[in-house]
Amino acid sequence: MKASRQLFYFTPLCAALLAAGAAHATNGMLMEGYGPISTGMGGASQAIDHGNAAMAQNPATLGMMADGTARLDVALGILGPDVSSSAGGMTAKSGGTSYIMPAFGYTRRSGALTYGVGMFAQGGMGTEYDATSFMAGGTGLPARSELGVGNVIFPVAYQVNPNLTVGATFKFMWSSLDLQMAATGAQLAGLAQASGIAPTGNLAAALPALAGAPTARLSFSDDNKFTGAAKSTGFGAALGMTYKLNQDVTMGASYQLKSSLNDMETAASAASISAPGFLDNGKITVIDFQMPSVLAVGASWQASPSLLLAADVKYIGWADSMKSFKMRYDSAQMGGSVNFAMQQDWKDQAVLNLGMAWKANEALTLRAGLNLADNPIPDQFVNPLFPATVRDHVTLGLGYQVSKAGDFNMSVTMAPSVNVNSGSGVAISHAQTNWQFMYSHRF
């Protein structure tokens, strides 16, 4: 599953590299919600029944399905970023405007126990600038990257008593990355110095000359649309609960643990460092890239038979997972290695999800919501080619029961443009329009 595309480039004013992990430049690197029922309600998810997407948020809400039933959800998300960067009187518009994220989930309830399996993209976002734009740095080659983070999720929920349900998920995770990055030789050398680790072997001897190059390029990429040249696997987990205060009010909470992904690695000669008159092939290792922990609490209120209100608060632990972005290049030709590091210092992020659902008739449900968040990235570290700066979202959605066993849901999320002046002197504009579609069938 390809979850995101991301461009990296170093302008003459800044050796700024942002982690490709911003597969979710909506709430930082995370999606504003999972599944069209939740996203139609501003991303609220902790205390409402929103189908199998619950396994990506609060698994305890899976216990809201009827005993003796099963549910299959097939979903498609389309992330539509609109990004442009300007500097020195020049403007470049990103060509990365549409990213596809499929998902599915199957769950069954038997007595007090609900269980199942699902697959979800962690999110999606990207920027791509062509070889003629100022973002390409005069290399004559496009600058881009593609990051994918996906999960196969195994959820379980157990109804302890008529009011209390607890849940948990185990996640098999994978990540992959393609990267084609332009820089000056001096900027590349600066990143090597920032790592605090001295280069080794013949590569160390070549670096002083490389540092004087007017342009340089670090590249690793394959042609596979579903995986990147650098790959890793790992694990994740989450815990959740719901509690019915009364017939109309439900409370919910969940905790997503920080991921445990292995380092992403390419094949031994799949990466390259190049500059005028210099070319070396080798291996890239992306060191300790992780997805953050998420603590969420929420409530829902069935205000009337036709009106449901919901609200969540989420706290995303970016400070622990996004302190810096680190890579190591091991030469397969010259011998030796060089490490690169870029300071990130993201802040923890608070997100408020507000939503409502109105049942217009027996078949049609209309939804609306707000997703309100601060920006976790300090302005001085925002890379103009990785603008994970979107803050607030307005959401709309609908559900339609097409048969006794099947229903269709969709949502649209609109994030107004956020303008940031980065520490590199580049002005960045970033807006989004995202869609989600889902068909559900009950057995």
TrEMBL record:
Keywords: Cell outer membrane, Membrane, Signal, Transmembrane, Transmembrane beta strand. It holds the Pfam family Toluene_X. It comes from Rhodoferax lithotrophicus. Gene3D superfamilies: Outer membrane protein transport protein (OMPP1/FadL/TodX) (2.40.160.60). It is a multi-pass membrane protein. It comes from the Bacteria. This is Aromatic hydrocarbon degradation protein. Its main location: membrane. Residues 1-25 form the signal peptide. The lineage of its organism: Bacteria, Pseudomonadati, Pseudomonadota, Betaproteobacteria, Burkholderiales. Belongs to the OmpP1/FadL family. InterPro entries: OMPP1/FadL/TodX. It is found in: Cell outer membrane.
